[in-house]
What does this fold into?
Amino acid sequence: MRMKNLWFSMLLVAFCQAVAAQETPQTLLNMAGEEKMSTFYWGPEFKLHFHGRRMEQFASPLIGGKMGLIINRKLILGVGGWGKVGRTTFYGRCVGHDDDGQLVDIPNQKMAYGYGYGGLILGYVHQSNKAIHFTFTSVFGGGTCNEFIIEADGDHGTTFNSPGFFLIEPTLNVEINLTARLRMEAGVGYRWMSGNRFRQLSTSELSGFTVPIALKIGKY
It folds into this structure.
């Protein structure tokens, strides 16, 4: 009798587990064998922005940081901000008036620009638990810029325009799990930067490839 009760209890437990498993559908964010988990991360990021041929510098460094949520180890929802280190110089036509009110037209004036931007980060993580895996992210944001004259002695001259701009920056990254709370990320992306409000520079001259390197601190 006790043996029959034991077998009946075991069958009942197995049946209940099977029903429970059938009542939990598989979804994109909850595949079989993966635990639902949302984590928070933050960390510094260094970027190189590459320029067009008009610029004297081949690339410009930027320093910033980002933070956000990783939802169910797959979706990234975050924010970030970056600022340009130093200035990027180029030559353009400068038309204006001197101190006496006389028209001045300099066809080959040395100029420069600098900018900062920030925005929303959306992304996807592929196989987050593997030691080396891929992420795809994109920044949707905007920023402000200064276009200014470079004086003959190399100093910062008159700022003749301070435009705002819109930016989209998709990036494919390789992410390495260094420890349970620290990851490193490096990738290649492309910066599309609107030049509609710039006086001297166009969208094609402001846009270009990017190389980001970041540390991501969190509980994974």
The domain at 28-218 is CATH 2.40.160.20 (Porin). The radius of gyration is 27 Å.
